[in-house]
Target: Ribosomal RNA small subunit methyltransferase G
Amino acid sequence: MADLEAFRIRLGDANLVMNLVGPDSLPDFWNRHVWDSAQLLNHAPEARTWADLGAGAGFPGVVLAILMKGREGAHVWLIDSLGKRCRFLQEIVDALDLPATVIIGRAEEQEVTCDIVTARAVAPMEKLLGYAQPYFQRGAQGLFLKGERAESELIEARKSWHFEAELAPSQSDVRGRIVTIRSLRRARTKR
Model:
């Protein structure tokens, strides 16, 4: 709890000078950000290694790293393409001594191998699956935090991708969904 509170304070301070999260969401930090992120652990309790694509303000990746701190083999890769966000994430990782590595770069260009690839508020599912495809090729499964458009995003994604999907209700927001993706491969285009 102390690490989560320290994260909350640092996020609030950093958010004053750069837009990491909507300022109106900070008062609901515990439910909207922490619990929303933490619930992923219930969907993959055995997973030890995670890659958070478009890690941004650290949701879900920093929360997962905090909660898995001290767990043998636990590690989270926080991947983002913007340097200022990565500097913020690195400050958090260093200050809280988290089992995490910050990587600046495009998610789809990284060589990370993990159990779970995740993302929150990065892109529509069709595009997100393109970013995540290399992780699936190396054996990962996907756990993505999505909003009320999750079902329609999956329908659209099936035009470009073949995959198995499960939707579970979010415990932090009745409109949210947790989307589990397995067996991802690109759909063949018709000629």
User: Anything to note?
Assistant: The chain has a mean pLDDT of 92.
